[in-house]
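hiii, so i know i said id send this last week but things got crazy w the move. better late than never?? heres the sequnce for the chain we talked about at the cafe, plus the structure i predicted for it. fair warning i was half asleep when i ran it
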Amino acid sequence: MASRAASILRRLSRLRNNIPIPIPYPTTAICPSPTCSCAPTPPGLDINHTLPLAGTKPPYAQHIVVCTEREDWASRIEDEDGPNLAKGLKDLLGPRGEFYDPNHPILITNASFPTTAPGASAYLFPSFQHVPHIDLTPSGLAHFVRSALLADDPLPAPPPLTTHALTAPIILICGHGGRDQRCGVLGPLLQTEFRRALAKSGPRSEGEAQVALVSHIGGHKFAGNVIVYLPPGFRVEGREAPPLAGQGVWYGRVEPRHVEGIVAETVGRGRVVGEMVRGWTEWTREGPGG
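okay and structure toks below
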């Protein structure tokens, strides 16, 4: 019975993915062609070009991006040796954890962003905050979850967490070769191309976009997988913030030839590139909404 129910759910998911999903943000249907040469896409990576991309983003209410300074990790990031913020958070927020909430899924990934000592550091979305120091003791982790993620730390509370608002776009590229070689090959190539394209596009008033490799975000068969987060203060040429400000957009099947177009349309104009979109967030001002 359970296997039959799972089969039905898979069929329903496939049907859902075949239904056009309207994108609630300004959209550019086709990624613009590059204006200069870029790295070729390595052959033989077995990327799925058949299944629809729209609707393949996993649902999550918050995203914790753990700074590790590394560019690859064990297949399960919670199995990494040494101090491990991802493991501590998964223990607290997972199905057996003290703060588990099936109606409020939280995505936890490692990233190649630099760490700050002592303890650990992380980027938080949709709050668009950088937390430079997180105490890895059990009480410190519980305080971090309550105050930074759930905002319900009871009084008296430990000293408040130090946070810094993120003001520049954040670009996350799955490069988790320890989990799947497709992302392990494409991730570093895309990171190089994004940095080149961003440098070519020139400085932004809110600061230079940050680019990092991250661990598994789902959908290796759709590599390269890229998430672009635009901060709430994002502006297009000094004008009013576009609807995509304060949100994130997920792309799949990204190749080096697409990077310049994504930088121009999403980072430069606050627009979604429709042909490669896996999904997007629709966080509200009061809190995450999807």
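btw The first strand starts at residue 27 and ends at 28. thought thatd interest u
miss u guys!!
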